[in-house]
Amino acid sequence: MTPRVRVFPDLDRASAALARHLVERGLEARKARGRFRWVISGGRTPVGLFARLAGADGRRFPWSDTEVFFADERCVPPHHPDSNFRSAWESFLSRVPVRRSRVHRMRGELRPPSLAAARYARTLGAGAPSSPRFDLVLLGIGPDGHTASLFPGSPAVTEVRRPVVAVPRAGQPPYVPRLTLTPPALSSAREVCFLVAGADKSDAVTGIFRARPPGDPRFPASCVQPASPPVWFLDRAAAEGLPSGRALRSGGRG
Ligand code: 6PG
Fold this sequence. Notes:
Bound molecules: 6-phosphogluconic acid
CATH topology: Rossmann fold
Strand order of the largest sheet: 3-2-5-8-9-1-10
Strand content: 15-25%
Number of helices: 6
Distance between the termini: 25 Å
Number of domains: 1
Shape: globular
Largest sheet: 7 strands, parallel
Low-confidence stretches: none
CATH class: Alpha Beta
């Protein structure tokens, strides 16, 4: 499965291109199924993308027909500075006409975390962990190759049954328990897009692309294997380790 790779001069132009891509995918999903079911990730990388979508770049986005889900969450209350929900709410969700009832927050404040994971699984609906649930999943990766809260060495990386699990200890700050969608749930999407920037991630990108067989738990992002190859939006620094022929180098328009 050859991933589709687009490389841009910088994160801003990668974000501009991904914003256009998301708008088109959202409109296609609404036309085909009346709804755009979109999973978003936390972290710093997508903040510029979200700001674009809250502005002119999101003018055609089908907000009123979009359902937002979260790839993962820290086990903190929604107002906590570490909350992915808070970050997304402040970045764009509070500034676009998405219906509040269609923003499906992971309840990180619930205890035990396993209860929060089970409740979120119910939010996702019944069916096999790999049944198509989402139109598009937006993911980032860490320098260790993690994605969502699927960290190297975590049993969550090889979970095959449940769509959502609790992670007792994160593999990077904040070292709090987390909730995460599992590879079967993430892989059930019609499309997975990764947005990755920075030289600190180039080794992880290279490791993920070299993972043999595809799906090496040492690089958890490689265990996300949708039916159609993931689409990678990279800046040049993150793509540094890729063979030049591997990536479609997108010019200045981004
Ligand atoms: C989280 C994210 C996580 C993130 C990567 C990249 O909850 O932190 O879901 O998987 O996407 O760690 O984070 P940065 O974009 O901040 O580098």
